[in-house]
Structures
1.
Amino acid sequence: MWKDLVLMLPVTEFPIIDRNSSYHGVPVSELMENAGRAVAEAVRERHAKPSKVLVLCGPGNNGGDGFVVARELRVDHAVRVAFLDKGRGPRNRLCHRNMEMVQELMVDWHEGLLQDYDLVVDAMLGTGLQGQLRSPYLEAVVSLRSFHGDIVAVDVPSGWGTPDSYRPSLTVTFHDLKEGMTEKDCGSIIVADIGIPPEALDFTGPGEYLLYPMAARTSHKGQNGKLLIIGGGPYTGAPALAGMGACKVGVDLLHIATPESSFLPVACHSPLFITHRLEGSMLSVPQLRRIRPLLDQIDCVLVGPGLGREPETLRAVDRLLRDCSIPMVVDADALRAFHVDKGPYNNRNMVLTPHKREFERIEGNKLPEDLTERKGLVLSLASRLGCTILLKGEVDVISDGVRVKLNETGNAAMTSGGTGDVLAGVVAGLLSKGLSPFDAARLGAHLNGSAGDLAFQMKSYGMTAVDLYEMLPLALKEALRGIDR
């Protein structure tokens, strides 16, 4: 049941992993059973003889784990359970179902309750805590700080990372250490394998949509993403397709800076575009003076769609890559200005979106067919360049130089022209909405591929990039369904 301590993962990853586990055939209910048994096993190792045990449970999955612990321990210990959020009740059906199975063990929480027990199991909040502790959890944690018996925390101590936390005797954490866990804060630490499938860790899935930044009811225009696309000149469709991709993932304001040769086709494509005319037929260094004031008005810039490969254009892109400090997506022709021997670039909030040939030109070596070797090469290049790479392919490979994710949504019909422009717009849109480069790239890859799969169901091999971006809101709506915020 126990495994060696290895990688530390951010606590925000674990709800994503849970959701992806269900997608890959291991439901959260099974993970919860395994987690509860692991904690119960750890308690028995510390208390072989019958003891009086109190399990403190909260309303979420951590509380559900605690109810399983109580069910397991009541065979050989005197167990009672205190549910701390009786006013609102369990937050999900799984927690509620496990609470019903131990109803006969329930007692009311009150200050001083802990002193009647030899051991307390803390299953109140886990990694779901946001902000500071509130009543009644604050009072419970204060009581834990003065408790003289044994305390076992489930996954993480409640209040961990806040000034109000406490130090348990033991923390049984699941799958891997959470980033920042130490024995100073968590007591002795056991990492329990609860059966998370490897695919839930390696591949994107429904869990990635927990990253999507929902707009607040009180937000106003511009607070949910302001994006500038620099593209066009020789080609007019690419910046427009990228712009529609960004709009369809919820960007508030979309600016497109494009040479006058492509200005009218781009501007007429949609009334959603705020289009800025650049002099001449292609992007050049002097036009950066017109672009720089726009950078102060936006959250992210996408450069590349439809720019062409003229040396003057590539010089302008190179200058922009070196001068721009805001989050950036580099796509299509702009990737030709990106060279390993010029890196690392100072802007670490940068996403590159190459296909196979573009990646090979940047990296300087042939891309291996073996997926494991391909992952290693993408990770290595991302690390050397100090940016995030989204390598497009039958299986997309996404890496920020530390982590790697794979994405297998999408289909063969997405080789049609413009689908890569839509993807760049999707990733840039998510980046403008405040996601990190790695998160924007992995969520963007899954969403774009899912929209492509919906379009394929309707249009088969006749689907186009327009069909793709029109399916983005439907794919997003379906993926966000049932997410408890």
2.
Amino acid sequence: MFAAAHAAQMRGDFAAAARGYRGLVRSKPFAANHNLGTVLGASGDLEGAEAAYRAALVADPKAATSRHALSMLLLAQGRYAEAWPEWEARRGVADLQIPAPDLRTPEWRGEDLAGKRLLVFGEQGLGDKIMLARYFAPLKAAGAEVVFACPPILHRLMRRLGVEPAGPEATEASVAADLWTLQGTLPVRFATTLETLPPPADFGLPLGSGGGVGVVPRGSTVHKNDAERSLGPRHAKRLLALGRDLRPEASGAEDFEATAEIVAGLDLVISVDTSVVHLAASMGKPTWVLLPARDTDWRWLRGREDSPWYPSARLFRQRAAGDWDPVLRRIEAALANHPPDR
């Protein structure tokens, strides 16, 4: 019975999967409730998903997967004060590959940073690293010297923030520091709410205009939700007809600094939910984001066309999973009504 419910979940028949899991919550209280939370959340029933995850945690209070899933559900609703403590459970979710530094250097837990050298380990996707780079300014304002362990493709860009980049596998032998922290833990340490979000990282690039539109139709195929967030060939061709392809293989950009220099001269960026969105919106460039209906990332909240994370962003949401045609029609109409200079 569990196998049948899981098979329905895998083929996207969430109604059948939910019925199956509900029938199993007594015999398999953890697994059935956790999976029920997953399918209800993907279906948009956030209240039901929260109840299911909390029931799973009654069955197994230490389950990192359920705590992390609950945190993302709360974050998607803007309930940040409740969410961040649960968000720390991501460290125990193997699939996320969160860094687990084995250092004698102590982890920073909110103590005074004046005169301290803080090693920040980047985590998750490139877009996450750019989005959370906004916390480097308050760290520096608190007196810290910041070293950021991240992929080389980000190094030149991050130097613009006055931080010292290091390789992603930084160790005590390669980087001297007084304290370390995970980048994803910074919102926890700063007790971030929707009202206290730091502004996006200011990379200091002068912005121009007259360069027209830049577009990104697809993200990385290794992203867990790429099948939902990226455009298929037909829709990608339609988006690419609207402007310049900003993917590195098309633009020739060797790193994010080079992409940022291209973006600086554009009038508008239109992209699926990928790292270029975070770069362009951090720069203050008008950025239109195509969002899937299913498993929409928590940072875009729900039911909004704007983003508290990025004042220059405008969100174009699918109304039905997999149906990009209405989204592209709305984008094409918006461009026709307010065309950028080309």
